[in-house]
Amino acid sequence: MTQAAIKQTSPRDFSEQHQQLNLSAGQWKILNKLLKKSSDCYGKSLAPGISQQEVAELRQRCREYCKNILHIYPQCADALALLSRIALDCNELGKAKKLIRQALQHAPEASVCWFSLGHIYLAEDEHQKARECFQRTVKLEPSHFRAKAAYAYSCFHQGEIVSAFNIYKKLIHQNPDDAHVKSNLFACLKQLTADADTEDLDEQLRFYLNLEDVDHSDLSRLIASLLIHRYQLNNADSQVDIAGLCVDELYLKALRVVIFSSDLIEDLNSSVRQHLLFARRCSLDELNLKICLAIQAYNNEHVMAYDDSERMILESRIQQSELILQSSEVGQAEQLALLDNWVSLMMYEPSANFPSLYTGALLNNLIDTASSINTGGELLANLGQLLKLCFSDVEKKVDIESLGIISDSVSCKVKAQYEENPYPRWLALPYQTPTEYQHALDISLPDHGFMPNQQDKNLKVLVAGCGTGKHALQCARYFRNTQVTAIDISHASLAYAKKKAEQYQLNNIVFLQADILELANLEARFDIIECSGVLHHMNSPLEGAQRLKRLLKPGGLMKIGLYSERAREEVIRCRKMIAEQALESRPKDMRELRRQILERPDQWPAVLASPDFYSLSGCRDLLFHEQEHRFTPLELEAFCEDLDMDFLGFVRVPAKHHQAYKTTYPCDELMRNLSYWDAYEKRNPQTFGAMYQFYVRN
Q1: pLDDT tens digit string along 145-178?
Q2: 3-state secondary structure of 116
């Protein structure tokens, strides 16, 4: 929802640029000083972590400095460009364009002016014109980092993903800490696949896996495609060399930080896991590979199926460990056997599923043993990571305030599901440019009509049904002057969210355990309510929405996410298969269903394309949910009428469908005609595969 980062270039020296002006040395000095102050103020207004009040004050000071400059020197392009940028940030596009045109009349070769004009075109969704402006900027100033990044941003939004990637991959090496470039680079990488296994791409991906403040799972698809080429996984007769995998840096690193969502990579991991389990003796390189597979298993919640032969070996490993610990003498060889057995178990099941013979103290001793035989830093570091993960689930209980009693029968079933399998499983937040919620709305939903009460210091946002908190934390982290209240029915999900909030040091978010049906005692009222992927799991989605509506301030907006009937055709078939086989929402049965789907990939392309299929909590949410309602656009129209709220339009519609709809129905300028959307979705049933996401207003 946020626009590409905008940063002001450094001010030019008037005395060098405009010698023709008949001004005194003192006036030159004043002008340069004022321009530096104005530029500094504008730069500070873009900084993350500052309040909207501070942003407004910095913008106002910048305006005043610019007006003083223009009083002395009315043709100052730099001051006019700064005023234009402030107008753009305030969504005053007409004013912004008028000011920058005026600046270009006085300084047609000023790179800062072309750069600013490019961003005005971005805001108007005129990406080709924006690209031309950024090209002009770079031609005038070849080292202009921001203009190159903005050009790549325009390429990306015109569907030229590879072109954008080729620019970003150069920029990221120039400045690996640039958050905006990292964010947009990963947005590109998320959509790319490898045509072949190349040394250059391997090196690039290993570099990206070491970057911080990114969501490495965005690399899952691209890394998987490269590994598929490397090990010829599309060839049923191909054989993978375990020794090669043991030293494959990309594969080993990805296992630790990426949740793979590829059926072919899962098949590889499953085969390698079985081979390593059956091996009588394990080299240190193979032990390291086992540890990495165990970390991947922890991250995907041990979603992979296994057969009876593997189960028998696991039981024998447990028995062997018990015999060793009962022995009076436990030497180095026995301790390494204990360690190898533990890692083998962790590849298959959570630590809580096994007897308590592997205590934290014992495992620390085993790691000390591994250290004493000089295993190398990587293996020890990976062991430490696995140990931390396995015992993080038994940390002290997280205190979360409860609101009301959860008594509705459907709510109780849904609560039980998410207590067992907190959802969604996520590892890191992607970066987004700090902005205001209203500005994000201006970009994604024109003519929304939302006008928050300016007397309130903070925009109050309720995320109803926050799950494990990824979206709620993003709201708290990237929207300025926002106080987020995140509620969920599941304590386990909220505990995960709260720990992540502490990790990201967020203090503008509070968590409450509550059923949406039991919010009558919640005294707070909210400017925005977001409820995505929640109402369709209630007994009555309409009743849930009506309860939330009572918590909206006058003029407030509600964002709702609901399942599409047409987009979930494969899910419906899956749920029928589950009913026919009397499968239950327990790990064994979920793994069995997944095994059947993986054996017939051609029949389940949409299910296999969903990242949710590749974690246990995701699979349960996707295919085994206790309650599910689905809608069509016409049913959404009736839903909004019954709710007595106006439909304001869909957001997060895939770009190709957004453009195709505009072309097909040019008369629907606001794209709010749900009859037209119903006809469009009939022809394109996967349009809303990621749910209908839309806003409504009283």
Answers
A1: 999 999 999 999 888 999 999 999 999 999 999 9
A2: helix
Measured between alpha carbons, how far is 540 from 639 in angstroms, rounded to an integer?
11
Q: Which amino acid is at 499?
A: K
Q: How confident is the model at residue 268 (pLDDT cuts 50, 70, 90)?
A: very high
Helices and strands (H, E) in the chain, number of each type: 32, 8
From CA 690, how far away is CA 562, in angstroms rounded?
A: 9
- Residue 251 vs residues 30, 257, 258, 459: alpha-carbon distances, Å: 59, 10, 10, 44
* Tokens, residue 619: 């699979």
Q: Which residues contact 408 (CB under 8 A, 6 or more apart)?
A: 515, 517, 539
CA angle 472, 495, 217 (to 5 degrees): 60
For residue 337, the tally of other CB atoms under 10 A from its CB is 19
Q: What type of residue is 126?
A: E
| Pairing of the two strands 459-464 and 526-532 | parallel
Q: What single-letter amino acid sits at 564? A: S
Placement of tokens 């991947």 in the chain: 296
Backbone angles phi, psi at 221, to 5 degrees: -65, -45
The rounded radius of gyration (Å) of the Cα atoms in the chain is 28
Q: Find the mean pLDDT for residues 342-365.
A: 83
The predicted model scores a pTM of 0.88
Half-sphere exposure of 243 (CA within 13 A, CB side): 0
Res 117 pLDDT > 60: yes
Average pLDDT over residues 65-85: 91
Q: Are 85 and 42 in contact (CB under 8 A)?
A: yes
pLDDT tens digits, one per residue of 644-675 = 999 999 999 988 899 899 999 999 999 999 99
Q: Which two tokens stand for residue 513?
A: 């355990």
DSSP string of 68-109, one letter each residue: HHHHH-TT-HHHHHHHHHHHHHTT-HHHHHHHHHHHHHH-TT
**Which of the pair, 607 or 455, is modelled with greater confidence?**
607
Whether 431 and 213 have beta carbons less than 8 Å apart is answered as: yes
Residue 16 has pLDDT above 60, yes or no: no
Contact at 8 Å (CB) between 433 and 480?
no
CA gap 75, 14 in Å, rounded? 11
Q: Given this model, what pLDDT does residue 455 score? A: 57
